[in-house]
Every structure is written in structure tokens, then in C-alpha cells.
Design brief:
Order of helices and strands: HEEHHHEHEHEHEHEHEEHHHHEHEEEH
Number of domains: 2
Structural class: alpha/beta
Helix content: 40-55%
């Protein structure tokens, strides 16, 4: 126990000790946190659907029809008509042959990688991939090769030297802490040339990118049997869960071998009915994606002149690159004192020396909200300058 106490004290000294905050009420640009109202730029509710009346009504209807809990794994009795319908709708939405609904994106990535690869195979991953892709590769017991962020030339060399029976390239589509987009067309071309699969984690692109929000594959107009697509339903879609879409045979294999699907209780059917309603809104209301683009451009203009750069992004994620842990934590605290909540992101979530404020936009934000953020950041920058040694 002393070891843990010492380790926690060390995290505290490095300004790396994480804390939870208690949110009271639904998601939105304004949040009640620990009994206080905040203007929030911290949520992944990019399209503003998490509290949409149509989703609430669909969940209530699903609860009335199917009850509260699924009560069993999908392979026993936990796969309802609502789940089946959602899988068919998801496959059609992302223009893939078949889809499989998972409890969440982390479990989906772990399940897919371990079901497709093992000892003697090789997984290749971008250095800035999400933890679920990294953990999935490690747990698979396949060889794991990491290439520098977005470096397709290095990946090409690694693939050319690889003689494994199975090769799997795994990448975020939109990188969750940077807001940039992977070179998916180049990655798919490499996979085609070197007989590899490409697993695309589109957690932050699904609903946001592509025509009708159909995701990063539609954004780049990509189609291939080598593609495996993972999308989440707890971010832009505003509900919960995740799905994997791929060829019929590959999904059939996951149904038999993805342990994180086989050995867990199914998500409540009411979540599936709500997700079905969300898909309809995502396709029918393009103004939400247009609004994100407008707000992103406005944000970059509003934050000009700060001592820290705002990374370029066409997604809903806009990191303000601060650098050291102590400064970014102090900056976040000064913002909270002004009733503005922007999360400070520190290592190991991001590389050392790249601590940042992760500004997440929602279609429900306004220019006035961004002006308030800019004013708060300006005041915080002045305060930090005065207290600097």
C-alpha cells in the first residue's frame, strides 16, 4: 500500500494526478459541474444529439417494448430485434456489407484485433493511436510494429520486410487528442500492395465527416474488402455503444471469435432504438456538420494572439498546444475560475512536452460562447505571465 501512496504522490508532483468531476444534468454547451454552472468545451457530443428529444423518445419506446436490461450475452438471448435492426442500418449507413454491435469502442478494438491476429502475425500501428488499439495489439500476442505519426514511408518499409501470415494495420481516422486525420487513402493503398488488412477507428469521424456524416471512409471515398471499420455511437451519435463493419465473412468470424463480444452482456435494447433514431437525424440534418465547420473557423480567428498555438483542424477537436504539465493545469484551473471548462490533457495521454487544452466543439455552441472562451483564455494568459518567475 505504501508503494501506491508513493506513486500517487509522484503523480501529484508531476501535475499528472487525474480527478473526476460530477456532472448534474444532461450534456450540452452549459453544464452543471460540482454544483456550479460552466460553459463547457469538453464533451464529444459533437452534433448536439445527446439530449435530443427524438433520441429520448426512441429510448423510452425501446424500454417499453424490450424492458431495461438485455440480461444475457448476444449469443444467448441478449440480441433483440432492435439490435438486429440497428446492425442492418449501420451497415447500410457506412456502406459496408455487414455490421456487429459492441458494448463500446474499446471492447470493439480489443475484440477485433485479437480475433484476427495472434502469435506469428504482425500488427502495425500509428504512434498516436488510441489506447484501445495499442492494448488490442499487445493483447493479441502478435508482433507489434509502431510507425511515426502519419509516416506512410516508414510503414511501407515495415510492410515490405514483413513475412507474417497475417498483417493488420490499425489507425485512428481522426486522432482524438490532435484533431488531424490519418492518410487513409495512402494506408489502404499500402495494405492492398502488401496483402494486409486496414482497421480504421473512426470514433471521432463518424457522424462528423463525409456526406451525411457517414464517416471518414466516405470522406475519402474509400471502398475495399481489406477495410475494417469501427465507429462509436457515444460521441457524435449521442447514445452509447460501438460497431464494426466489414465483409460478411469477417463479421461472421468476429461473431465466433471476438471475446469482448461473445462473453459480455448485451447493451440494453433501448440504446439500439435510440441509436437508430440518431442515424436518421445525422443523415437528415447536415446543418449540424456545417455549423461545426463555421464554429471551427471562428474559433481559430478568436484565439489568434494567444501565446500558445491552436493546431489546424477540420474536425470538432481543436487542441491548444501549451507544452508543460504545470502550465496547462494552471491554465485549466484559471479557466474554471471563470466558469469555463476545457480539459487539460497531459502525458501519458499525449507525448511528453505536448500537454494541451483539448477544445471540443458542439453544433450547439455559439459565437458568443467562443468569445467568452477567448476572453477567459486571454485573462488566464495575462495572469500566468504576471506570476511567471
Amino acid at each position: 500500500m505504501d508503494d501506491f501512496q508513493t506513486a500517487l504522490a509522484d503523480l501529484q508532483a508531476q501535475h499528472l494526478l487525474r480527478q473526476r468531476r460530477i456532472v448534474d444534468g444532461p450534456q450540452g454547451p452549459l453544464l452543471q459541474v460540482d454544483g456550479k454552472s460552466y460553459l463547457a468545451f469538453c464533451s464529444n457530443d459533437y452534433l448536439g444529439l445527446a439530449n435530443h428529444p427524438a433520441l429520448l423518445a426512441a429510448a423510452q419506446a425501446g424500454m417499453q417494448q424490450f424492458g431495461m436490461g438485455a440480461a444475457a450475452s448476444a449469443l444467448i438471448s441478449g440480441h433483440s430485434a432492435a439490435h438486429e435492426m440497428l446492425e442492418q442500418e449501420l451497415a447500410a449507413f457506412v456502406e459496408m456489407p455487414r455490421a456487429l454491435y459492441f458494448s463500446n469502442g474499446y471492447m470493439a478494438n480489443l475484440g477485433v484485433i485479437a480475433a484476427l491476429t495472434g502469435p506469428g502475425d504482425t500488427v502495425f500501428g500509428d504512434r498516436l493511436n488510441h489506447a484501445s488499439l495499442i492494448d488490442g495489439a499487445r493483447l493479441s500476442r502478435a508482433d507489434f510494429k509502431v510507425y511515426p505519426h502519419g509516416d506512410t514511408a516508414t510503414l511501407a518499409r515495415l510492410l515490405a520486410k514483413c513475412h507474417s501470415r497475417r498483417k493488420l494495420v490499425v489507425t485512428d481516422a481522426v486522432f482524438s487528442m490532435d484533431g488531424d486525420i490519418a492518410p487513409l487513402a495512402a494506408l489502404l493503398d499500402l495494405c492492398e500492395r502488401h496483402d494486409a488488412w486496414l482497421l480504421v477507428d473512426d470514433a471521432h469521424g463518424f457522424g462528423v465527416l463525409g456526406t451525411q456524416g457517414r464517416g471518414s471512409l466516405r470522406h475519402f471515398s474509400l471502398r475495399s474488402e481489406r477495410l475494417i471499420y469501427m465507429g462509436t455511437l457515444g460521441k457524435a451519435a449521442g447514445v452509447a455503444g460501438a460497431f464494426v463493419a466489414a465483409s460478411d465473412n469477417l463479421i461472421a468470424w468476429l461473431l465466433q471469435r471476438a471475446r469482448t463480444y461473445m462473453f459480455t452482456t448485451g447493451n440494453p435494447a433501448l440504446l439500439a432504438t435510440a441509436a437508430s433514431a440518431s442515424l436518421k437525424l445525422i443523415a437528415a440534418e447536415p446543418w449540424r456538420r456545417t455549423r461545426l465547420q463555421e464554429l471551427g473557423a471562428y474559433l481559430h480567428q478568436a484565439l489568434r494572439g494567444l501565446p500558445w498555438p491552436l493546431a489546424a483542424s477540420i474536425t470538432a477537436i481543436h487542441p491548444l498546444l501549451v507544452g508543460d504539465n504545470q502550465t496547462v493545469q494552471a491554465l485549466a484551473q484559471l479557466l474554471r475560475a471563470q466558469s469555463v471548462w476545457v480539459p487539460a490533457i497531459c502525458p501519458p495521454t499525449v507525448p511528453r512536452g505536448t500537454a494541451r487544452l483539448r477544445i471540443s466543439l458542439s453544433a450547439l455552441h455559439t459565437e458568443a460562447h467562443i468569445d467568452q472562451l477567448a476572453q477567459a483564455l486571454g485573462a488566464a494568459a495575462t495572469a500566468l505571465t504576471r506570476t511567471a518567475p
